[in-house]
């Protein structure tokens, strides 16, 4: 397990979105209404990038086919084609004045 620094806390604001590639992980850090989330950055349905996705309440909506995922748990809430797995969510870790994640190598 290894800690990876993602961003300084001072740089985060509502509407913040940034994609990170760490080893084999493709992650997106976002802040909405003061809450921070770290999720996989591509939709599990067809790997479409989620950087331009909408957030509707607590749902993250994939811009390609409208799949909806709970932003907190990653649970698939709605699908328009075939069923897919849930979205992977990662626990954020605050250290000093930054936010990061602990991942396997």
UniProtKB/TrEMBL annotation:
<keyword id="KW-0479">Metal-binding</keyword>
<keyword id="KW-0411">Iron-sulfur</keyword>
<dbReference type="Pfam" id="PF00355">
    <property type="entry name" value="Rieske"/>
</dbReference>
<dbReference type="InterPro" id="IPR036922">
    <property type="entry name" value="Rieske_2Fe-2S_sf"/>
</dbReference>
<keyword id="KW-0001">2Fe-2S</keyword>
<protein>
    <submittedName>
        <fullName>Rieske (2Fe-2S) protein</fullName>
    </submittedName>
</protein>
<dbReference type="InterPro" id="IPR017941">
    <property type="entry name" value="Rieske_2Fe-2S"/>
</dbReference>
<keyword id="KW-0408">Iron</keyword>
<feature type="domain" description="Rieske">
    <location>
        <begin position="4"/>
        <end position="101"/>
    </location>
</feature>
């Amino acid at each position: 397990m290894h800690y990876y620094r993602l961003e300084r806390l001072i740089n985060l604001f509502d509407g913040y979105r940034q994609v990170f590639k760490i080893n084999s992980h493709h992650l997106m850090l976002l802040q909405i209404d003061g809450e921070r989330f770290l999720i996989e950055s591509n939709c599990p349905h067809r790997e479409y990038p989620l950087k331009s996705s909408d957030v509707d309440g607590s749902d993250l909506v994939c811009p390609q086919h409208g799949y909806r995922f709970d932003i907190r748990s990653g649970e698939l809430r709605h699908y328009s084609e075939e069923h897919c797995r849930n979205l992977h969510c990662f626990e954020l870790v605050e250290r000093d004045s930054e936010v990061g994640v602990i991942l396997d190598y």
